[in-house]
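Shipment paperwork, digital attachment
Item: protein structure file
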Amino acid sequence: MSTVLVEVWADGPNLLGLWRGKWRLTLDGSTVPGRFGSTPWHDSAVAAIDEAASLGKSDKRNVPSADASPSRH
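Attachment content:
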C-alpha cells in the first residue's frame, strides 16, 4: 500500500519580512499532479508552515490511501 505524504516548507522572507507557506502531496516519492499550493503571507515562517500543513492535510483527504502525517522540510 502506497503512502501519500504532505511536504511543507516556508518561502521567504520577502522585502517586507513576510513568509508564505507551501505544500505538495507526494506518492512513493513522486509529486501528485495538481496537488500543491501556497498560503497567504505570514509574519513568521512557523505560522506559514503550520497553515500549509493544515491545508495540505485537508487536500490529502481526497487522495486514496492517504494517512494524516505531514512531512516538514
